[in-house]
Amino acid sequence: MSGNILIMDDEQNYLLVLDAILTDAGYKVTALSDPEMGLAFLEESEVDVVVTDMKMPKLTGKDVLDRVKKSYPYIPVLIMTAFGSIEAAVEAMRTGAFDYITKPFSNEELLLSLSKAMQYARAQQENRQLRRQIQERFGADNIVGRDKSMRHVLDMVHRAAPSRSTVLVTGESGTGKELIAKAIHNESPRKDGPFVSVNCMALNPGVLESELFGHEKGSFTGAVSRRRGRFELADKGTLFLDEIGELSHDMQVKLLRVLQERRFERVGGTEAVEVDIRIVAATNRDLQKAVADGLFREDLFYRLNVVSIQLPPLRERREDIPFLAAHFLDKFAKENGREMKGFSPSAMDYLSAYEWPGNVRQLENVIERCVVLAGGETIDADDLPPEIKDEDAQFKSAVDLLPTKLDLSETLEKIEAAVIRRALVKADFVQVKAAELLNISKSLLQYKLKKYTISAK
């Protein structure tokens, strides 16, 4: 096995012996008699495992351990100690040492302990690499959003992420609420901790309580052993509670207590479990209305609504549609081993004009379908699903998205605004052409654009 080993021991003879043994075993060894030099070496060199003696004149092995665990928590530390100092080595194990070996030791004992430490180091490196990849994928800077409303959302993510405050993400289904939650986690000081997600609507209340808080052995039929819940699994990280508006009244009470006290009992248990977590919740419901209707606790709402981030529906961020479509085209082309050049103008016109009741998730599914079924390297209008091109279906989708409790004048105004936006897209945002499509004058169109605060690029 290969790897980089740093050895610190003030006894020169031991340094020479260890250097020879480990070099013969295939390791790259740096042996230093001064622990302060060893710590300086760590700052500028790649080290997989640290091996340090317990008793040294300038710094003890415990001092070295504390410094390494603070600055390089992913590097395992092996403690070497004389037989009479085993208690100190055991204490070091309790505070984070990977293992200890007593002097004099056999070559086999040393190499076995070092092999285990190296395996641990490799696993830590893989985890760090995976976390970096996740952060690159789910960081706010990688979320496609050039529209003004999305730039505001991403600015909120950047500002909220470093804090410990609870965040409530709201928006229609398919707008990317979990993606925003992951971005908050991956830009926070908790990014090296777990990100645990639970859909509150997908589980019935009895199962949900066990999922969130865990259960003790024998607490109910089928509980054959103790099980940790999502709150415990998210300790030192972030817990994402999706569809929070679907919680039953009893679960709202229990969740409120946990948010207030940061402790809970497992189902069937009496022991309090304390956790250090950050909560990000999400819902597609209007929680303020649910509070007014008596369906959601007001005190829980205010506990959750510390930082509120509202995600706009895709139809209100049409500037992003071409960029999102290109992003998904590249993604699914790679996954399916295809060379795709882009979209024809007519296909992009249809995509940009559609109302997208399923939001970004629907757009993603449509592009995946197109990549799989398209006959050529360019997505054309003929490759799009029928509902995207059907004029009546498009109009119906726009009407279906309107709130039910509107008077006729407000409803007609919303429909008029949607038709104007669509005409602008078809006219490539040339106002004269859009006015012709709508059979109105350019001055009337400009009045309508101002009235409905519609951007004409």
UniProtKB/TrEMBL annotation:
Q: What Pfam families does its record include?
A: AAA_lid_14, HTH_8, Response_reg, Sigma54_activat
Question: Which residue ranges run through the membrane?
Answer: none
4-aspartylphosphate modification, residue list: D53
A GO molecular function assigned to this protein is: sequence-specific DNA binding
Q: Where in the cell is it found?
A: Cytoplasm
Tell me the ranges covered by the Sigma-54 factor interaction domain, including all copies: 143-372
Question: Is Membrane a UniProt keyword of this protein?
Answer: no
Task: Keywords in alphabetical order, please.
Answer: Activator, ATP-binding, Cytoplasm, DNA-binding, Nucleotide-binding, Phosphoprotein, Transcription, Transcription regulation, Two-component regulatory system
Please provide the Gene Ontology terms (biological process) for this protein. Answer: phosphorelay signal transduction system; regulation of DNA-templated transcription
Q: Spell out the GO cellular component terms annotated for this protein, sorted alphabetically and separated by semicolons.
A: cytoplasm
Residue intervals of the Response regulatory domain: 4-118
The answer to whether keyword rRNA processing applies is no
Broad class of the protein's primary localization = cytoplasm
Extract the InterPro entries matched here. Answer: AAA+_ATPase, AAA_lid_NorR, CheY-like_superfamily, Homeodomain-like_sf, HTH_Fis, P-loop_NTPase, Sig_transdc_resp-reg_receiver, Sigma_54_int
Which PANTHER family does the record associate with it? TRANSCRIPTIONAL REGULATORY PROTEIN
Q: What is the protein named?
A: Two-component system, NtrC family, response regulator
What is the originating organism of this protein? Humidesulfovibrio mexicanus
